[in-house]
Amino acid sequence: GENVEQHPSTLSVQEGDSAVIKCTYSDSASNYFPWYKQELGKGPQLIIDIRSNVGEKKDQRIAVTLNKTAKHFSLHITETQPEDSAVYFCAASTSGTYKYIFGTGTRLKVLA
Amino acid sequence: EPEVTQTPSHQVTQMGQEVILRCVPISNHLYFYWYRQILGQKVEFLVSFYNNEISEKSEIFDDQFSVERPDGSNFTLKIRSTKLEDSAMYFCASTKDRGHLLINTDTQYFGPGTRLTVL
């Protein structure tokens, strides 16, 4: 069935360094890939998304890359700050369905 | 900024009891969803709802589950007879539209979740 794998499960970086989180999806028909950030006690909040007709998208310190051939996509956070500390989820969705298939999440800790 | 809200934040119930989890989607949104997350596991899709009908559901969403939009603002998830394995965080989400037919273009906005504990 459809599956999204996410790595690493935890990631610690020094403030100012970059963080990279990787996801792999199984359904080649997936065409929309959102990334969510979840802070303690809050619901997942969208931070960036990418559609299958582009290979890269950037929004200030956050970027996402997509490799359709390899069926993987990655989140890149540059110049990390303590407030970037949270759990990050990737997800994949396919047109014609309503559901998101989520990865298992990555707990990012930015050390001051 | 409009938000999806959920109540209660934490619900404790005895096995076999019925629970109703409540959500208020963003006001001009038309598509509604429930997901759950068992502790330490993935966020899993349960059901989507549009125009007073279930549009898609997962294998998790069996006869013990039901959804309803009882009025113009609330969207509820009912579990008829809770089991221990129903203990999880339940998230409601909504979207304004489904977007283009060929590619999903509308983001799902999530609520803060309800933690359900079944004893």
Topology:
The complex is a heterodimer of chains A (112) and B (119).
Chain A: E1 4-7, E2 10-14, E3 19-25, E4 32-38, E5 45-51, E6 56-59, E7 62-67, E8 72-77, E9 86-92, E10 101-102, E11 106-111
Parallel strand pairs in A: 2-11
Antiparallel strand pairs in A: 1-3, 3-8, 4-5, 4-9, 6-7, 7-8, 9-10, 9-11
Chain B: E1 5-7, E2 10-13, E3 19-24, E4 31-37, E5 43-50, E6 53-57, E7 65-68, E8 75-79, E9 88-95, E10 109-110, E11 114-118
Parallel strand pairs in B: 2-11
Antiparallel strand pairs in B: 1-3, 3-8, 4-5, 4-9, 5-6, 7-8, 9-10, 9-11
Give a verbal description of the structure.
The complex is a heterodimer of chains A (112) and B (119). Chain A is mostly beta strands and 112 residues long. Helix content of chain A is 0%, strand content 54%. Chain A is globular, with a radius of gyration of 13 Å. Chain A has strands at 4-7, 10-14, 19-25, 32-38, 45-51, 56-59, 62-67, 72-77, 86-92, 101-102, 106-111. In chain B, strands 2, 4, 5, 6, 9, 10 and 11 form a 7-stranded mixed beta sheet that branches. In chain B, a hairpin with a 2-residue loop joins β5 (43-50) and β6. The N and C termini of chain B lie far apart (37 Å). The chains are: A mainly beta (112), B mainly beta (119). Chain A binds chain B through residues 4, 31-32, 34, 36, 41-46, 49, 51-53, 89, 91, 93-95, 97-105, and chain B through 4, 6, 31, 33, 35, 41-45, 48, 50, 55-56, 58, 91, 98, 100-105, 107-113.
Overall body shape of chain B: globular
End-to-end separation of chain B in angstroms reads 37 Å
The SSE string of chain A, one letter per element, is: EEEEEEEEEEE
Radius of gyration of chain A: 13 Å
Class of secondary structure makeup of chain A: mainly beta
DSSP summary, beta strand count of chain B? 11
Report the count of strand segments of chain A.
11
Instruction: Report the major sheet of chain A.
Output: 6 strands, mixed
Task: Quickly count the helices of chain B.
Answer: 0
Strand coverage percent of chain A: over 45%
Give the helix level of chain B as a range of percent: under 10%
Low-confidence stretches of chain B: none
Please state the average pLDDT score of chain B.
90
Q: How large, in whole angstroms, is the Cα Rg of chain B?
A: 14 Å
Distance between the termini of chain A: 41 Å
